[in-house]
């Protein structure tokens, strides 16, 4: 059964404009067809289409809400976008499938990309959520200056992964359970030394994600996989 993202009020689900277009123009759904809905905050619904148009589709809720089991951790990945944006888009898709709660993009001293099309990232997130049969939509934040993400974050534990020689926490030893965690991943040229020092002075800890030097998108995906396995 096809899954669509909708706003649910009482016993009525209203598909987003993008989902309505896809429902009618691509899948050729008609009034009376059965569909499955997610509300983005953790619930599944079985529904039957009532009003069907390429701009607005509504569906009567038949069963639900059926809650998705929530993960026992909150992971916020803050990552510098790569020069080739398709690499970071691929990472976002896979990270959502594995499990992530929030994604931010950071502008760093060594960043080669200064623009991220957040709307496109959100579409990738939505597609990955539906494909992996999830009901929670991760939060997507646009490009944020490095110092701003460091100062404004409110996670219970905060880490910065970098390649400089220093004493570091090993990601395999982290306890993600029942905690909110923010992990910073730098650009292809790594964080600057000043950025690392700034983070460490603001309650971040240095993080090791293994002996191998990883590409930016590989490091981001490694973090998501580690959190899922260790939790």
Short summary of the structure?
The chain is an alpha/beta fold and 231 residues long. The protein has helices at residues 17-26, 85-98, 118-131, 146-152, 193-201, 216-230, and strands spanning 3-9, 12-15, 34-38, 43-49, 58-67, 74-79, 102-107, 139-145, 157-161, 169-170, 180-185, 205-208. The protein has two domains: 3-67, Hypothetical PUA domain-like, domain 1 (Ribosomal Protein L25, Chain P, Beta Barrel), CATH 2.40.240; 74-230, Alpha/beta knot, CATH 3.40.1280.
Describe what this molecule looks like in 3D.
The protein is α/β, with parallel strands linked by helices and 231 residues long. The protein folds into two domains: 3-67, Ribosomal Protein L25, Chain P (Beta Barrel); 74-230, Alpha/beta knot (3-Layer(aba) Sandwich), CATH 3.40.1280.10. Helix content is 30%, strand content 30%. It is built from six helices and twelve strands. It has helices spanning 17-26, 85-98, 118-131, 146-152, 193-201, 216-230; strands spanning 3-9, 12-15, 34-38, 43-49, 58-67, 74-79, 102-107, 139-145, 157-161, 169-170, 180-185, 205-208. The strands form two sheets. A seven-stranded parallel sheet has the order 8-7-6-11-9-12-10, sandwiched between helices. β7, α3 (118-131) and β8 (139-145) form a beta-alpha-beta unit. α2 runs parallel beside α3 and α2 (85-98) runs parallel beside α6. The longest helix is centred in the C-terminal third of the chain and has 15 residues, at 216-230. The protein starts with a strand and ends with a helix. The mean pLDDT is 94.
């Amino acid at each position: 059964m096809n899954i669509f993202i909708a706003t649910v009020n009482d016993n009525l689900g209203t598909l987003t404009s993008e989902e309505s277009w896809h429902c009618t123009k691509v899948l050729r759904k008609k009034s009376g067809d059965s569909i499955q809905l997610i509300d983005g905050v953790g619930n599944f619904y079985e529904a039957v289409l009532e009003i069907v148009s390429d701009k607005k589709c509504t569906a009567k809720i038949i069963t639900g809400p059926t809650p998705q089991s929530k993960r026992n951790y909150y992971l916020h990945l803050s990552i510098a976008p790569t020069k080739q944006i398709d690499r970071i888009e691929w990472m976002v898709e896979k990270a959502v499938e594995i499990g992530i709660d929030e994604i931010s993009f950071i502008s760093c001293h060594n960043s080669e990309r200064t623009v991220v099309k957040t709307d496109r990232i959100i579409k990738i997130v939505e597609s990955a959520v539906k494909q992996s049969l999830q009901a929670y939509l991760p939060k997507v934040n646009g490009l944020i200056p490095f110092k701003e993400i460091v100062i404004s974050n409110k996670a219970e534990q905060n880490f910065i992964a970098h390649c400089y020689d220093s004493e570091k926490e090993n990601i395999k030893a982290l306890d993600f359970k029942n905690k909110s965690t923010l992990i910073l991943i730098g650009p292809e040229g790594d964080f600057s030394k000043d950025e690392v020092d700034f983070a460490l002075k603001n309650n971040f800890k240095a993080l090791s994600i293994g002996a191998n030097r990883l590409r930016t998108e590989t490091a981001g995906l490694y973090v998501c996989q580690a959190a899922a396995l260790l939790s």
